[in-house]
Task: structure prediction
Amino acid sequence: MHAITDRQSLISALDCRERQFTEELIAEGGRIKRENVGTKTYLRGLIEISNKCRKDCLYCGIRCSNVQVERYEMSEEEIISCALKAMALNYGSICIQSGERCDKAFTDRISSVIRKIKALTDGRTGITLSLGEQSRETLMEWFEAGAHRYLLRIEASNPMLYRRLHPENSLHSYDTRLKTLYDLKEIGYQVGSGVMIGLPYQTPADLADDLLFLKNFDIDMVGMGPYIPHPQTPLAALQYPADGRRLELSLKMVALLRMLMPKINIAATTALEVLDKKGREKALAAGANIVMPNISPASSKSRYSLYDKKTSLSEDINLEDAEIGFGEWGDSLHFLAKRADIE
Ligand code: 5AD
Result:
């Protein structure tokens, strides 16, 4: 299959409904992955430390207006014990995720937790953060404490679409989100971003532009998965593509991104599993090389409900057939190559 890289070909590929084409595209994504980043799958133990959130994103189950959510916050000790569990399982890396909070008590606690985890594991734990938009100072503080990767999805790279998915106020600004991504890059983090796939209002051209956005930003890592409506959110009332179509689009997005950016890290996201029990395995076959098993305690898991059915997912993905990079950080080769160029 020839490489699909220009906007029009990306749109056609996403639009195409032929089964054979989709299968070939997915196989090609897998082949390009193996050739460029190898056959190993790397793990990040996901710790969902709090569902308190100051944002009100129209698609997200833990948006601040959802009063039906029972809010929780893990203590420093609980977070550290999860991190040690990940290390005992030989995962190599953890990812600390939370609803967005910027109060000083929270940002200080994160710095302290990062330092303690690093100290307790002789610096061996790779630490990824997924804590939303933060000031440049806070992001620098966490980087200096020892975090080295950060995930912040752009959600939808088209500013018009972004505006339809978020309330119209200064807390939900596309420009701030973009600026934060640039701050992360300048500070020296490996930067991850991504989008939701199959959103209301979203067109194949939007998705093609999402891929080109990630390429132009020169992103190091990507997590993108299907939109899964959450009944307690305003967006759930709107039309979106059927389950099968969202799954197919998500797998195609992974394969096309792997063609565009052969050496980045791409996650097989949990949301895929809502649409198909084998969703994450299928994403690995299409070009993904990262899995984030949820290692949060059951009480947190049940309350960290970003989308419908998330809490009832089995946390275990069948990785028997996969070759796992146990004990390795599995850093983005794309990022490491850039750094080697500079030095
Ligand atoms: N469906 C799919 N993904 C969602 N997220 C939030 N709500 C939903 C939803 N309803 C994703 C966002 C966010 C990530 C942590 O979870 O992309 O960045």
Remarks:
- Residues 59-60, 153, 155, 196, 227-228, 230, 271, 306-307 surround 5'-deoxyadenosine (CB under 6 Å).
- The longest strand covers residues 40-50.
- The mean pLDDT is 95.
